[in-house]
Amino acid sequence: xxxxxxxxxxxxxxxxxxxxxxxxxxxxxxxxxxxxxxxxxxxxxxxxxxxxxxxxxxxxxxxxxxxxxxxxxxxxxxxxxxxxxxxxxxxxxxxxxx
Length: 98
Fold this sequence. Notes:
The chain is mostly helical.
């Protein structure tokens, strides 16, 4: 009975050793690429999008909400995005980031 279960499990997994050998051959033929071989990140588009998001978050301060909890969250998230963008600009200017 255990042999029958093992044979069924082998078939369910994918055919056993033959399929694993095919997977290894396919993986060996895959070219190795480094991150600099891929398309560069569109930095200008990311900065424009970040600026638009910050402006939209700050424009939400003039909504019809009561209390200051929403305002604190909006200002905090906009400030965090601004800090991330400033750090990115400084790192790129100093050559520490591609």
